[in-house]
Amino acid sequence: DGGITQSPKYLFRKEGQNVTLSCEQNLNHDAMYWYRQDPGQGLRLIYYSQIVNDFQKGDIAEGYSVSREKKESFPLTVTSAQKNPTAFYLCASCSAKNIQYFGAGTRLSVL
Amino acid sequence: GQNIDQPTEMTATEGAIVQINCTYQTSGFNGLFWYQQHAGEAPTFLSYNVLDGLEEKGRFSSFLSRSKGYSYLLLKELQMKDSASYLCAVRSDRGSTLGRLYFGRGTQLTVWP
Description:
The structure holds 2 protein chains of 2 kinds. Chain A is an all-beta fold. Helix content of chain A is 0%, strand content 51%. Chain A has no helices and 11 strands. In chain A, strands 2, 4, 5, 6, 9, 10 and 11 form a 7-stranded mixed sheet that branches. In chain A, a hairpin with a 5-residue loop joins β9 (87-94) and β10 (100-102). The mean pLDDT of chain A is 93. By secondary structure, chain B is an all-beta fold. In chain B, 0% of the residues lie in helices and 59% in strands. In chain B, the strands form 2 sheets. In chain B, strands 2, 4, 5, 9, 10 and 11 form a 6-stranded mixed sheet that branches. Chain B has a 5-stranded antiparallel sheet with strand order 1-3-8-7-6, with no helix packed on it. In chain B, β4 (29-37) and β5 form a beta hairpin. The mean pLDDT of chain B is 93. The chains are: A mainly beta, B mainly beta. Chain A binds chain B through residues 31, 33, 35, 40-45, 48, 50, 56, 58, 90, 94, 97-105, and chain B through 4, 30-31, 33, 41-45, 48, 87, 89, 91, 96, 98-101, 103-106.
């Protein structure tokens, strides 16, 4: 089945630790996105990538890093510099018709 | 910058019709999207308008007026399963923001029996 797979579904981070969230898609989409969602808030863009080996900062990139070495994969690292990482993280990819489709999300909590 | 406004909450009864409004101010407008998000789940795509007018898809319709910076999502024959948050998003294709979506905070719809 074609789709966007995020893993893990739940993740716990210890103080001072970096953690990496996985996002893989087999839809052959060029563009991929990472969003953060806090309770009662809209989706805020962290990073996005329109093509392999290129990515741009979104509105809240501080404390996060990404890579785009393969078309299918766009992992997000939450670094220790991100002081308030508890949130629901959503990965999306964009079709040729400009429609963004989302993975199931990763819920990150701090221990 | 981008500014997208939608009501925070709405309620309606089963079988009724509800209209969720969205107003926006953006540069490089290239489409308005509606997504449905159930609690604890990812958003799912509902509709996309790039030209003025009404797009109908089953029980859901979406309208766009670019000159007024206004859209609405119309839900007919409401069902309990329609209780969810409805997100309005605008695509901007200007310069460095090419391909970005800007999301409103969402409208939490509660459908009562």
